[in-house]
Design goal:
Elements (H helix, E strand, L loop, with lengths): L3 H8 L23 H7 L1 E4 L7 E7 L2 E6 L2 E5 L1 E2 L4 E4 L4 E7 L5 E8 L2 E9 L10 E9 L5 E9 L6 E8 L8 H7 L1 H6 L2 E6 L27 H15 L3 E10 L1 H8 L8 E7 L12 E2 L2 E2 L1 H12 L13 H8 L2 H8 L5 H8 L5 H4 L14 E6 L7 H11 L11 E6 L12 E2 L2 E2 L4 H19 L9 E5 L4 E5 L7 E8 L5 E2 L9 E6 L39 E5 L7 E15 L5 E9 L16 E2 L11 E10 L18 E14 L4 E7 L28 E6 L3 E7 L1
Parallel strand pairs: 12-13, 12-14, 14-15, 15-18, 18-19, 19-22
Antiparallel strand pairs: 1-2, 1-9, 2-3, 3-4, 5-6, 6-7, 7-8, 8-9, 10-11, 11-13, 16-17, 20-21, 21-30, 22-23, 24-25, 24-35, 26-34, 27-33, 28-32, 28-34, 28-35, 29-31, 29-33
Amino acid sequence: MSPRWLRLALTCVLCAAPICGLGAQQAAPRISVPTATLDRYVGQYRMQDEPDIVLSVFRDGDRLYIEGARTPRIDLTAVSDTAFSAWNGYVTYTFVVGSDGQVTGMRFSSPGEQDSLPRISSQPVAYHFRPYSREEVMIPMRDGVKLHAVILRPTDTHEPLPFLMERTPYGVDGSTPNSINAQYTALAQSGYIFVMEDIRGRFKSQGTFVMMRPLADHHDPHAVDESTDTYDTVAWLLKNVPDNNGRVGVVGVSYPGFLAAEAGIDPHPAIRAISPQAPMTDVWLGDDFFHNGAFRQTYGYDYVIGMESSKEVTLPKLSEDAYTYFLNAGSFAAAGKLAGASDLPTWKAFLVHPAYDDFWRARAVQDHLTTVAVPTLEVGGWWDQEDLWGPQEEYAVLEKHNQPSDPMHRVYMVLGPWRHGGWGPTTRHLGALDFGEPVGDEFRQRIEAPFFAYYLKDQPGFKLVNTASYQTGTDRWMYYSQWPPQNETDHNLYLDADGSLSFSKPADPHAFKEYTSDPANPVPYRKRPIEATYAPDSHWYTWLVQDQRPYADRGDVAIFETAPLDHDVTVTGNVIADLIASTSGTDSDWIVKLIDVFPQDPAQSPSCGPTCLTIDPGPAVQPGGYELMIADEIFRGRYRVSFEHPEAIPANTPEEYKFSLHAADHVFLKGHRIMVQVQSTWFPLYDRNPQTFVPNIMTAQPSDYRVAEQKIYAGSHIELPEPK
């Protein structure tokens, strides 16, 4: 759900023209630098942290500029003899000159980011991006509402081209020739008529915005939803934009991914390919706002204020640690009053519809995916902090209707080692992880671009049969005829009362490991201080790969661990947690984390080649003993029987809680350990369960929050799918 402009701004500041607020810095006065000095800086520079990014520096008259494979020309302003700024001072490039007067490199810095770029050549390389024209239009819908769109078309050809469309609630004014060449480099080079459209009620579009607008009755010719708006947009484009080939593709990440999925429901016949990437699919069952009934408090707070306070994105700010803020506020209802946000439509919905009722079901996509009406490419990330569930669920539903012999009715899926939208930038990294290759570039060049070229231009080269998965641990692309693979066997990994973890069933099923859960001292879900979700310095984007060692010493986290593995253990498919647990309260949350524990001495782990998943030490990371989450999830105990009708938990009574930790494709390497952590709070991402059954947790009173004794019984296990 991250706004597209924000994702680009925070993760790809080198590869786009100024986007939204990036140009708001106060620029330093420009000074004059002799051309002889400028000539010394000309050449190629490779980013040290991201070696796949090479920037070329050119001189044009008395100015320097930079460009790269995904970086359209950026003019530099001299602020000293060696320092140059871009984007009104947001970015600074400082050239490094050795004692012999030779230029050895360049330093890049921006708020929250810096890198060194050694000089690798004195000869720059020019990149020629396709020229695009830009036009703004208002497109009428069937009910008279007009939607604002930006149309970008290559100006170097008049051949009929297909449309490639992104519909978004995040604003399209920043869509320019430079931005599409940076974001959609391979696609823009190939040539499409790009259409970027504000959905109704957002930015310059007319109408009323409704969060995840429910699907309308398509038998009613006057009813509107995101599917009909897409249909009407396509009909207008075909009629009013010259030199098109009559085909349309739709792509989008997060909320735009939801909109891309909607484009495939009762689609216009011209829509020939869609790619929902990290799509919001069901925000109660497993995406942005709830997971198995547990409310994602900080995310719901930040996102709804950001989306419904105005027609544009208005992200909230916190002046203190979010952990402290929400703990002091008490309930979510109380936090809403503090923020003055209680009247926002979705905020009201949270309070009135805490269970899985018709309100949330009407907004879910999966029940409407009754056929593969359009070739569909689902994309997701193993460490997606927002929409991990969506692409896996959409694929699972559509795969039942897959027609392998008919390329026009096929669903494909790509799962990679990414955070939310992490396949967009050029990077080898995710937090402390270094994959040794630019996995996102590989996806875009080998799969995404050929997918659209095949279905929209009849070009060969798309070879994906069904599912591409980047297997972590061994760090290599794997290809499967379906997901999960057919040839797999589930092995139970048992949690014993002594804290051991093994594939042998415990001797005493009545034994248990216990811990005390105190809502007044909940377990943080990531390192504190916890910033507002989309703050410029937020660690939200990579929290799922943060080291889990800080939580192992808490008394309210139950730890189960294997001995060092004497062979590799491969997990490929859906991971299931099956807990037998009891609580002294009458309600409880259960969080299960499957963790790969790296050896204390990295030398004890056999090398698996240059593409092995490794921990990049960095200045503040100790690789020895690193605890990396591989799969994880929360389950709210009141919903163990029904998501629609919550029930109190019988106190001090063992109950079964069986739920998915989602898919994984990971190899626990020889010498590593497998760990499972079980806890009952994950704060403040998830609101605190009072551990006393109340009708609505969001309006719980201070007296409702009580300490509970939790027991995890031997025989509880994790179902690990292993390929045969």
